[in-house]
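Incident review: delayed structure delivery

Summary: a single-chain prediction request sat in the queue longer than the usual turnaround. Root cause was a stuck worker, restarted by the on-call engineer. No data loss occurred. The affected request and its eventual output are reproduced below so the record is complete for anyone auditing the incident later.

Affected input:
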Amino acid sequence: MMMTRPVALLLVIALASCDQIGPYRREGVWRPGGVNDANLRAMVVVPSDLVLAAPSMPADGGLAAAAAARLRHDRVRPLLDSGLARVVPVTGGSAAPPGAAQPPGEGE
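Output delivered after worker restart:
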């Protein structure tokens, strides 16, 4: 009985100081008070989108399904040449080795 009181008192004192050990309760430590909400408000162009979201554009499931079907049946359409950059198809995930035959129109 005599030994129990000092141990209990020591335990109460130790637990009371746990409040100062917590990473968000110590003095001089950053406190995340509403920071996430403030960052979100700063990034949103139209603040009313936070209340009621607006779709970015109408989705066309038929267009996406047709593209997936062409891919599955190996009938992928070639990319359009805009003249801004040369479009070079890469097959097998790697570029042609040095010294390989050049496509027509190159090296002329």
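Verification: The first helix runs from residue 4 to 16.
Action items: add queue-age alerting; document worker restart procedure.
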